[in-house]
Amino acid sequence: MKPATYFDDHLSSQRLARQVAQATGTFEHLLTGRVPTSVTVVSDGEWLVVSLLEAFSPVERRLAAHEEGAARVHDFHRYLFDQSLDSIRSHVKRSTGVELQSAIAHIDTATGSVLKTFTTNPAVELFLLGQGLPALGVPVNAHLHANGANGNGAVCN
Question: Which residues lie below 8 Å from residue 111, measured CB to CB, with a gap of 6+?
Answer without folding.
Answer: none
